[in-house]
Amino acid sequence: MDYLLIIFPIVFVAAINCAQGNGDDPFYRNYYQTWGGSHLTVYNQGHEVQLLMDSSSGAGFSSKRDFGSGYFRMKIKIPEKNSKGLITSFYLISVPVGQPVEGVKHYEFDIEFYGTDGNPHIISTNAFANDLGNREQQFHLWFDPTKGFHTYEILWNQHQIVWFVDDTPIRVWKNNTQLGVGFPTGPLHVEASIWNPSYLGTPDWYQGPFKAHYREFGIDGCNHQSSKQDLCSSQSYYWNQNKYWQLDPKQQGKLQNARKNYMYKDYCKDSNRHGPECQVNQ
Ligand SMILES: *[C@@H]1O[C@H](CO)[C@@H](O)[C@H](O)[C@H]1NC(C)=O
């Protein structure tokens, strides 16, 4: 009988934590390659992924699971070379990229690095809510993202979506459904890629190949089940607890500082794109 007493608590703890990945999970536990063939390589026993871009292709990967809330993060090092014209990305999305699905609203929350000659480095955030995109806010980074790994995060609970760069919140998308602003219930999944959108012009392929690196493939996310959506707002997930409903005063200060000093482009300043969320997302 004794052994039951010992085993029971262990099983119990494991069941509660199952949605909270170990930060250092290997790639294939939570992700799979979506495109790019040999341009994606997994190494270091699954703990690091390289996405390579040259004139023939980029590459991308996706989470295996769909989520209803979570705190998503990745360590990323963007290509060291002059990668003008390229985007290295990490984002949450409701639909397969470029493939609208009948009846599925497009939600997307992006972190995108625009390749530059390094002067300055650019991080672009975008949001698609209820099929409405074109909501970029862009920042100059205060460090060199090509020289080492930094942590990029997207928090998502019923109250807010927050973009973080190394613990500094840079943008907030609040649940403003009462103002008619879209807010996702899920399912959303995680994707990452390196590619070259035509709107950024032609990359200088002679500078390539360009290599982005990703680490830490654990996912803290609530598995989406359409019949049990409420489960994903449960406070048993740490990211749904009160302290994550809004930024604390210190984070609020960091957010204001980042926006004041580093944001150089804001769709809210454009009267054609300005939405009701612009007043309240500060
Ligand atoms: C947004 O907030 C309202 C309460 O203000 C809540 O009822 C609703 O479930 C939230 N929406 C999502 C998608 O979490």
Explain briefly what this protein structure is:
It is found in: Secreted, Cell wall; Secreted, Extracellular space, Apoplast. This protein has 282 residues and is mainly beta.
Question: Which characteristics define this entry?
Answer:
34% strand, 16 strands, disordered N terminus, Jelly Rolls, 13% helix, mainly beta, globular, binds 2-acetamido-2-deoxy-beta-D-glucopyranose, 282 residues, eight-stranded antiparallel β-sheet
Strand-helix topology:
Blueprint: H1 2-16, H2 27-30, E1 31-35, E2 40-43, E3 48-53, E4 59-63, E5 67-77, E6 87-93, E7 108-114, E8 122-128, E9 137-140, E10 150-156, E11 160-165, E12 168-174, E13 189-195, E14 210-215, E15 220-223, H3 249-262, E16 263-266, H4 277-280
Antiparallel strand pairs: 1-4, 2-3, 3-14, 4-13, 5-10, 5-14, 5-15, 6-7, 6-13, 7-8, 8-9, 9-16, 10-11, 11-12
Active site: 108 (nucleophile), 112 (proton donor)
Function: Catalyzes xyloglucan endohydrolysis (XEH) and/or endotransglycosylation (XET). Cleaves and religates xyloglucan polymers, an essential constituent of the primary cell wall, and thereby participates in cell wall construction of growing tissues.
InterPro entries: Beta-glucanase-like, Beta-glucanase/XTH, ConA-like_dom_sf, XET_C, XTH
